[in-house]
Amino acid sequence: MRKSGPGPIMGAGRTRAADSVPDFAEFARGLSSDTWDDHDTGSAGHLDGIRGGLMEKLRVGLLFGGRSVEHHVSIVSATSILGALDQERYDVSLIAVDQEGHWHLADAKTALPDVTQEPSVFLPASPGSTILRPADAPAAAGAAATSADRKLGPHRGAARLDVIIPIIHGRGGEDGALQGLFDLAEVPYVGSGVLSSAVQMDKDFAKRLLAAAGLPVTPWVSFSDFELEQKGLPAAAEHAESEIGLPVYVKPANSGSSIGISYAENIPELIQAIALARRYDRKILVEMAIDGREIEVAVLGNDEPEASIPGEIRASQAFYDYDAKYRDEDTRLIIPADLEEEQSEAIQAIAIQAYRTLEAEGMARVDFLVDRKSDQIYINELNSLPGFTAVSMYPKLWEATGLPYARLLDRLIELALERHDRRSKLETHPPPTVSPDSS
To answer: S-S: 215 plus which of 139, 210, 329, 362, CB 3.0-4.6 Å?
Structure first.
């Protein structure tokens, strides 16, 4: 695996990996032209295949909602994305996943909260299944399936997809499960693949891999639900204290938006925090509480990722929890972060190294803690599907770096098609048997 040094700082402060990648300005010019073909990337041929060489809108499925505790955050993110997607370039289909896990389809004119009242659909887990089907339709094509498709009524056209933007946060959305379905259906999608999504979601496994790669992570211990059952919460709390001391943060290993996270300064608080975290996941993390500044970097790309300028979060509360992220108007996002140039470059370089270590693709937000006394940099976590609300760090960081929200979405779609194009060229059959005497 190649490692990236800090590299040159470009534009408003974005850092690239060691090798060059197409410039965003060039990409924007390509998108502003009359045809997609003017932008010379690996996915141009893929688009030609979809379009037959004709100028048509790309059919984008915006998938949101989900069964996780971050259902509402996903709707807010999807609302922002829908408002920013170029309606002259894309035909957008709205796909809402309700709290029971059922998919519903509507066109872009439908209010997002109302999409769950529209017809239920599913994506067949078979190659080439880029058409959503009514929930009661047979998965295989044929006369019966065609007849069932008519039940979609005015939304029938919205069922055809060229690419999906999944903005389902938390379990069932960014843990690899959804990505596996997309891979089986062979439909292009924004964001990391199955393995990287699952690893980024599981904070314990992510830390293990990052630490093995020599990257700085906050000291931690983890407990499975089985271990907690065996040890008991008091014994687990005492073990955590002996390993990393107090105070600590306790969090579910697989969760987001700071849901289920607590700060503990003593054993009784730690026991309560463990009890809360295990309500949301079968594995929990106990992390050393670093008195540090919360710095975030947005990373974008596939094989040759780029890092945005760093930003800083200053929460009015004890830590950056769910309320601070989405409800507290006193939470401040400082972009760019007040860092020395050398420190900023080091954080960007570590962000790219972390991104590559976990084999992320498309996008990820890399969260850091910078110790207020020693300036030691720690990776806190990576987020494969960061929030895209109007106040979310990921799009704001890229906008400050020189890539506006709408162009960021263009680039993410381009990266999804580029990866799918490469993947579709892989051999899926064994080579023909060669007779020993054929030579």
So the answer is: 210
pLDDT digits (tens, 9 = 90+) for 316-355: 765 545 454 444 467 899 999 999 999 999 999 999 999 9
Q: Identify the CATH class of 1-19+192-218+290-403.
A: alpha beta
Task: Supply the pTM of this predicted model.
Answer: 0.83
Tokens representing 175 are 């843990």
Q: Residue 13, SS3?
A: coil
Q: At the top level of CATH, which class does the domain 57-189 belong to?
A: alpha beta
Give the mean pLDDT of 59-81. Answer: 92
CA atoms within 13 A on the CB side of 311: 26
- Cα dihedral sign for 289, 270, 387, 318? negative
Kindly report the CATH number that applies to the domain delimited by 219-288.
Answer: 3.30.1490.20
Q: 287-312 burial, b if ≥16 CB within 10 A, otherwise e?
A: bbbbebbbbbbbbbbbebbbbbbbbb
- Using CA atoms, how far residue 300 sits from 21, 32, 84, 411, in Å, is 11, 21, 18, 9
State pLDDT tens for residues 167-202: 998 888 899 999 999 999 999 999 999 999 999 999
Check residue 45 and give its pLDDT. 40
How do 311-314 and 362-371 pair as beta strands? Answer: unpaired
Helices (H), 88-176: 143-149
